[in-house]
Design a protein that fits this description.
Structural class: alpha/beta
Oligomer: single chain
Radius of gyration: 18 Å
Order of helices and strands: HEEEHEHEHH
Shape: globular
Strand content: 5-15%
Number of helices: 5
Distance between the termini: 36 Å
Length: 166
């Protein structure tokens, strides 16, 4: 199912690129450009900004799809727009700080210990984490990151209707 969705998304992007005429101006009669700033740019490779304990995510790169990038900024100020933020060894304070500083569209993933108490899981989710993953199995964590990316892309298209001029 996941492979089919990714293939369909790839076909849609290919058709948009093939039908695009770069010399057109947005909102002119023959324009193929979409009048939403972020949608006309080429799709960039997903980037995961890892904050916290690097050793816990050392095997993650091998489980992510080709083209994904892991970055290790020093702090939240180093996170760029559009990146997925992964807190390794997450705390409620980490997630609260991310939600206060980063745009609301930023996906926040909290990785906690396998034996983390339910209170911590509930706290990071209540603080605004999009996902909380217990334990350090890289394949499971990677699947959650891929799902976050899919939601990011889906939101771009679902917000399109609201962004079009009336």
């Amino acid at each position: 199912m996941v492979a089919r969705e990714e293939r369909d998304l790839g076909v849609i992007e290919m058709l948009v690129q093939l039908n695009r005429n770069e010399s057109n101006r947005t909102l002119t009669p023959n324009s193929t450009a979409v009048p939403v700033a972020d949608l006309n740019s080429l799709r960039r490779s997903p980037v995961v900004a890892v904050l916290g304990q690097r050793g816990r995510v050392a095997a993650l790169r091998a489980h992510l799809p080709a083209g994904w990038v892991l970055r290790y900024p020093r702090d939240l100020d180093g996170v760029r727009a559009g990146e997925i933020v992964l807190f390794s060894g997450a705390t409620e304070a980490d997630v609260l700080a991310a939600r206060a500083l980063l745009p609301s569209r930023t996906r926040v993933v909290a990785l906690v210990d396998e034996d983390a108490p339910a209170e911590l899981v509930a706290a990071v989710l209540t603080a605004g984490a999009d996902v909380c993953v217990r334990g350090g199995l890289a394949a499971i964590l990677a699947s959650h990151l891929v799902a976050c990316r899919r939601r990011q892309l889906a939101e771009r298209w679902s917000d399109l209707r609201d962004s079009l001029p009336t």
